[in-house]
What does this fold into?
Amino acid sequence: MLVVLVIFTAMNPTFLQTPIDYLKGVGPNRADILRSELQIHTYQDLIHLFPNRYIDRTRYYKTNELAPTNAEVQIIGKVTQLKMIEGKGRRLVATFKDDYGSIELVWFRGHKWIREKIKLQTPYVIFGKTNCYNNSFSMPHPEMELLSEHERGLRSMMQPIYPSTEKLSNKGITNKVIHGLIQTLFKEAAPHLFESLAAPICERLKLMPRKEALLNVHFPQSQEALAKAQYRLKFEELFYIQLQLLQKNLAHKTKIKGYPFDKVGPLFTTFYKDHLPFELTAAQKRVLKEIRKDLGTHAQMNRLLQGDVGSGKTIVALMSMLIALDNGFQACLMAPTAILSVQHYEGLVELCKPLNTSIYLLQGSTKASERKIIHQKLENGEIDILIGTHALLEDKVKFKNLGLVIIDEQHRFGVKQRGKLWLKNTYPPHVLVMTATPIPRTLAMTVYGDLDVSVIDELPPGRKAIKTVHRYDSNRLKVFAFIKDEIAKGRQVYIVYPLIQESEAMDYKDLMDGYESISRSFPKPDYQISIVHGQMKPDDKAYEMQRFVEGQTQIMVATTVIEVGVNVPNASVMIIESAERFGLSQLHQLRGRVGRGAEQSYCILMTGFKLSNDSKIRLETMTSTNDGFELAEVDLKLRGPGDIMGTQQSGVLHLKIADIIKDGTILKIARSEAYQLLKEDPLLQKEEHRIIRFVYAQLSKYKNIWNYIS
Ligand code: ADP
Ligand code: MG
It folds into this structure.
């Protein structure tokens, strides 16, 4: 009883909810600025203002250990000589020596004061950034302290550097001031900082206790203690996010019923035994098993299927749909573009020929009369599989009994649209979302943590890796000669131009200029060229596309409309114009249009000479790897998680201390701990999970997890 009472008192959050105005040293002016600039409203917010970085004052460098980085270092040594250098860039220069060599200390200002103050031949500790020129190092405006005083100093060795803004520093709220405020606060708040994780978890993972972790994050006693403190706080942040996501997933499974597809019937079996055009890869088999398992339960499937371009997601989609059909249900497949939906339609009709299934295509351009027939047949169950674009989402489209929805390239659709399909009948259909834009695993765990994820991580056998090169525009003639060689071998070529909405008119002109110049270099009748872009009528697009698919044209000039899904195995060269303007995932998607046949394929990235650093990294990454996941990791690093598909809506990315890019390992541990916990104690009823239950209960109240802990 007493224990309970003590815990309860310690958890009493009122103290930490005290408005920041009341903290000694704050006052109304500073409080306003803290609120507007750093969103610090309460004591608690201040305690959870985590430093961005630390300056390491625990290590002393020797002068022969310096490297040309921009890191700050400290060195022990003596000033042996001081001299003024006159003229332009007038400066005071000191020679600073230790037993291993020397560097120069340089001052451009405050000469008089320094000359008077500095003691020659006396041990100092200097601290600052070094510059390197011709292999000799200098340090401008170093912080200097006599070694004797330095040794007596009581300050913490690792200096935390807090987030700041221009306004904060203008108003004199410097890093030192913030640190001071936190120190003041800590003295009072210490008794109110309670443990927020269950003892078994802390013990198993050897986590630093919460109070100690908070203390060390602000006042690190050593590198080691800081690392442990950060680990603990990052773990905590990620753990509760994962707990929330997994709980949602679990609730979904127990609450949302779906139709159980418990039969594996004749369609699936016949297709698998007699009509599969190739042996499935091990990854495809594994994923199918996962899907079958989902469909067999009475819970609604909600699964994300990730697989790189060309990994063979379509056949998995088809076989999943056959399971639905075998159980007496309809299925639909939604694709983001008309071109892609036509391709899916044609491909599936071909594959299903021997099965006697009824497959229909519905697009925006489908004629009213035909549409009416489709609507009718859907409602009376004469259509087994419906394929189409957004047109599937129209209110008039009503299924008799829709059992499975497959969404291809889901990032093209909003989340809302995804929900809309679910409303078509009483039980929600099972949902399989497919994407070829690999999301780094860590991000998927966070953003789609409430979805089940399957991954096809293997390409069908016999594929030759695509060779990717970067060429400057000035080499265009050579590139054209290469294209001619490939065409002479019977291959086909894509040439893609960027089309970005903001500069549409200009891009359109580039495309047309490009088309003209290509037409001149590849004259009829030897060469035939298709062109496809967004301003064409759907029928014309389809016609041009078809000519290329059938091999009547050898070159396809296009904008990114062909980015997704188009499958022409005979095409072996992908030329991307102004490649520096594309994002990594888009480049990778485009490259995925080739390398689908048995021939060696090529991707040529064309650019001008002027390239930004990020563009250079993107181009280098593209030429060095074909692995979509590796690319996705680089993309995440370049762009940050906020820009990656679909993540903008996701509040879970506003992490305070953990870093989704760097802390993938902690994330995995946090997820597995959360998973174990829910498996063992789904309702968090056990006594030892009391704290977790308490913290978790607050989660629904606050968006930011740090708002409830304490
Ligand atoms: P994506 O995952 O990009 O949608 P697709 O499903 O379009 O890939 O498959 C790409 C190509 O690979 C298609 O031509 C398809 O027929 C072929 N394919 C898929 N699976 C296999 C396999 N197991 N063995 C051989 N070829 C396969
Ligand atoms: Mg596909």
Q: What stands out?
A: The pocket of magnesium ion (ligand 2) is lined by residues 313-314, 408, 565 (CB under 6 Å).
